[in-house]
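Q: Predict the bound structure with magnesium ion.
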Amino acid sequence: MSAAEFDLIARIRARAATREDVVLGIGDDAALLQPAAGRQLVVATDTLNADVHFARDAAAANIGWKSLAANLSDLAAMGAEPAWCTLSLSLPAQSGDGLQAFVDGFLDGFLELAAQHRVALVGGDTTRGPLSVCVTAMGFIEPGWALRRDAAQVDDEIWITGTLGDAAAALALAGVAPYCENEVGRNAGDARTEAARLFERLHRPTPRVAAGRALRGLVRAGIDISDGLLADLGHVCAASGVAACIEVDALPASTALAAACAGDSRRILQLSGGDDYELCFTAPARQRSAIAQALSQTQTPAAVIGRIEAPQAGAEFAVRVRSADGSAWTPVRTGYRHFG
Ligand code: ADP
Ligand code: MG
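A: Predicted complex:
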């Protein structure tokens, strides 16, 4: 290990907070952690690569925030309480000062979000290579209470927290996304504050940790929306052996999105845009008021957007989308595909 890498690790270690269940954190060959008695360990990993998951010139603090947020969102989608994380950084060769500035900025965003959720950074790896960030987050859940993808049942209502499409609209505004550009750009021209809200959603997503916790024991299946509603709900359908029907007019939109984009362009963003990190879950209709109450205690808005159905033989998509008049609303794009 070079002196520069040693120095970087020392900087990370100096800033990382700890918690009482970390017996030994950064600095040894491995961390020693004391899991809570009687609870299951929940582990999620996500890698963010430059030019694929974030722009190479993105603010380092935003990259730090988002790399942890994506992982905390996965824990939230299981209903888990986050506790620990590790951080593997691959950093391109550059001057020591440039590296330090990047790592300092990265930690500003990463550790701000970690502190909000009392997550301790307990280890990681630091190497030279193309800019890439891999985070592993760990947390706890009571046995049997996880919100799994394979638990949806026919006639369950489908819920979504918050609003959909903001992050995708920001990408479209930035000219990155290959759809909706003109529409979004034209309508948002005078609405800089609204546009800034969209970019905040893209760069600093809020993992729905408190909502995920509140839903334990009330709902059946759950997933977070990282690749787009159609794609992610499709994963639930595949795992559960069911189909789903979404009411396109029930999809919740933020005022910022409504200001930026209308009509079918907006619906495409809401159905197919990734990076929103909202929770989608299914539950029997009788749980409606208990769910609404539990979520309101965590200040989480949520809406019912459709229903789980029996799978249709020969259907092209497990998830169908319906207009107000009951006719089919044809999905155009099903989530961001990293390969192919
Ligand atoms: P080893 O050779 O045993 O893998 P390293 O030199 O890679 O040790 O790491 C030394 C210590 O610093 C370890 O405890 C490791 O977990 C921690 N560490 C390395 N890089 C990071 C990082 N990016 N974030 C947090 N901890 C790190
Ligand atoms: Mg190592």
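A: The longest strand covers residues 81-91.
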